[in-house]
């Protein structure tokens, strides 16, 4: 199953919760910094749930607030 890799998040994939992969090269470094896990390197199985995006949906627009996950507990 897909689990959210954000620190303190226990979300697992269920219907209605979107998950986004971190494999996109153009924003990988930014996502790693935002997630804030010490000495962590994401894999193709690392996912971030929609709760960590301002509007609940990842954006592919680098100028949008949802380009990088910024909402954390």
Task: Write the topology of this structure.
Layout: E1 19-21, H1 28-35, E2 47-49
Antiparallel strand pairs: 1-2
Comma- or semicolon-separated keywords:
little secondary structure, two-stranded antiparallel ribbon, 8% strand, 73 residues, 11% helix
Count helical runs. Answer: 1
Classification by helices and strands? little secondary structure
Overall mean confidence score, pLDDT: 85
**Shape summary:** globular
What is the tally of beta strands? 2
SSE pattern, N- to C-terminal: EHE
For the biggest β-sheet, the strand order reads 1-2
Give a written overview of the molecule.
This protein starts with 18 loop residues before the first strand and ends in a 24-residue tail after the last strand. Strands 1-2 form a two-stranded antiparallel ribbon. It is largely without helices or strands. The longest helix has 8 residues, at 28-35. Helix content is 11%, strand content 8%. The protein has one helix and two strands; from the N terminus they run E-H-E. The model has no long low-confidence stretch (mean pLDDT 85). It has one helix at residues 28-35, and strands at 19-21, 47-49. It is globular, with a radius of gyration of 11 Å.
Please summarize what this structure is.
Helix content is 11%, strand content 8%. By secondary structure, it is largely without helices or strands.
């Amino acid at each position: 199953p897909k689990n959210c890799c954000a620190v303190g998040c226990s979300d697992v994939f269920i219907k209605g919760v979107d998950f986004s992969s971190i494999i996109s090269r153009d924003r990988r470094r930014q996502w790693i910094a935002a997630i804030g896990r010490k000495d962590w390197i994401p894999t193709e199985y690392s996912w971030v749930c929609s709760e960590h995006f301002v509007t609940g949906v990842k954006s592919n627009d680098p100028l949008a607030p949802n380009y990088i996950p910024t909402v954390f507990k």
